[in-house]
Specification:
323 residues; alpha/beta; Rossmann fold; DNA polymerase, domain 1; 2 domains
């Protein structure tokens, strides 16, 4: 297994400079890479480290042992953050979420996340809690559902072709069997790219199995509600759909959910709840991309909460706010 390298760790640590006293939440603790550097940099911070993967929490506990008196761990999904944080005496001053699959999960073939490693088609981030695996999803899905999942995750014009091939060849004994099926279903002219044709299919199945879109919604809404004022929300995403949703949420909180035409004064009564320290996403530097190729698609967005309020959140959930 390769060692875990936290993405944009120096940028995350720098962003925490104005939020360096109190309790912060690492909602995707993983092996503890980000939090190890944060705890080293800011002695006034305590950590509530969460992850839905029980194996990751065990690794993080060992990595963060030098700071055990400042660390609390909890196995929790994003959708459980509201109840987990709601009963705490002091709200967190920051929440960090590094979305997607960690290096260690990719590098364990039995987890089923990577087609380059032989393993069962599991893809669950918290398999000990049960639930549907990727194999289970493939077994029950019809062609229309699979095509929709693939299309929503970037498979484009090949989505229907891939869905048909999956239906025709199921069940699959392993990750490599599914990858081979997608390869064979791909037109020869499209097989020579840098990205394997199965990449988007595996991503789509993983997102569906782990309900990642719904979980991200919970992170943004419930996490923002739970933050102290002022408080910092930092989200690192790895594909365009996630990044668009994170940006839409942060723009909505910054505008208060304004529905007025762009570049015109607001007359709809929207009340901003915070601001973005940077309008554009933070991206890894060239040196980091060379050291850690998996960081290339990473985008980090930040939002500082200044006040509580439900109107902007309701406008975000209704989809009526601009952004």
């Amino acid at each position: 297994m390769s060692s875990h390298t936290p993405v944009m760790a120096s940028e995350v640590v720098a962003a925490m400079a104005e939020f360096s006293s109190g309790t912060y939440v690492d909602a995707t603790l993983g092996a503890g890479g980000h939090s190890l550097q944060i705890l080293e940099a800011y002695p006034g911070l305590n950590l509530l480290g969460c992850d839905r993967d029980g194996q990751a929490l065990k690794l993080a506990e060992a990595a963060l042992a030098p700071y055990r008196d400042r660390v609390e761990l909890a196995q929790a999904r994003f959708s459980e953050l509201g109840s987990l944080l709601g009963g705490r005496k002091d709200p967190p001053i920051a929440i960090l979420a590094d979305l997607g699959v960690s290096s260690m999960q990719f590098d364990i073939g039995s987890r089923g996340f990577a087609f380059r490693l032989e393993g069962s088609l599991d893809m669950r981030m918290d398999p000990e809690r049960g639930g549907e695996s990727a194999n289970d999803l493939i077994a029950r899905a019809d062609e229309q559902l699979l095509a929709l999942l693939f299309a929503r995750n970037g498979a484009g014009a090949q989505s229907r072709r891939y869905a048909s091939a999956v239906i025709a060849n199921r069940p699959f004994a392993s990750t490599s069997d599914l990858a081979a099926t997608i390869w064979e279903a791909t037109p020869a002219r499209l097989r020579g790219g840098r990205i394997h044709p199965a990449t988007k299919v595996f991503q789509a199945l993983r997102i569906a199995v782990n309900h990642e879109e719904e979980e991200l919604h919970s992170l943004l809404v419930d996490g923002f509600r739970a933050l102290a004022t002022p408080g910092l929300l930092m989200v690192i995403s790895y594909h365009s759909g996630e990044d668009r949703e994170v940006k839409r949420f942060m723009v909505t909180m910054e505008s208060g959910g304004c529905t007025c035409p762009p570049r015109l004064p607001c007359v709809c009564g929207a009340a901003p709840l915070g601001y973005r320290p940077r309008r554009s996403a933070v991206k890894p530097g060239r040196d980091e991309e060379e050291r850690n190729p998996r960081s290339r698609s990473a985008r980090m967005r930040m939002l500082v909460k200044e006040r509580d309020g439900e109107d902007a959140i309701k406008r975000f959930e209704s989809g009526c706010a601009r952004g």
